[in-house]
Write a structure and sequence with these properties.
Layout (H helix, E strand, L loop, with lengths): L13 H12 L13 H23 L14 H14 L1 H7 L1 H11 L9
């Protein structure tokens, strides 16, 4: 039997995924924009996550598959949840493939699971 929170570092973790949805719901609709510190934070969040979401949708049209699970292309809420999983499960790969996205999540979670930039 596989436990959802068992560390596998495969980029998939149901606990982290649902945690992201719970955070997202704290300010109203589950829309991929959790509560942020200020208006400028929302502008940066929308710019970066919007572009990265569009990039994932575009890449999937051509069968490209990187570190992000294709399920993240479902909608912005699922994108935030999927990127949260990868942020904690495969942080180095996320930072390498999506540095601006990694930086937004690091600022939001106040964590740097990939460690200092070298």
């Amino acid at each position: 039997m596989s436990w959802p929170a068992r560390p596998t570092c495969d980029g998939h973790n149901v606990v982290l995924h649902e945690f992201a949805h719970a955070l997202d719901a704290e300010n109203g609709p589950v829309d991929g924009a959790p509560p942020l510190a200020d208006r400028a934070g929302y502008a940066a969040w929308a710019r970066v996550l919007g572009a990265e979401y569009a990039r994932l949708v575009h890449e999937l049209q051509f069968a490209h598959h990187g570190v992000l699970d294709p399920y993240g292309a479902t909608n912005p809420a699922e994108f935030f949840a999927v990127t949260t999983e990868v942020f904690f499960e495969r942080p180095g790969a996320l930072r390498a493939q999506h540095p601006a996205l990694y930086d937004q999540l690091a600022a939001f979670y106040r964590q740097d699971p990939a460690g200092p930039h070298r």
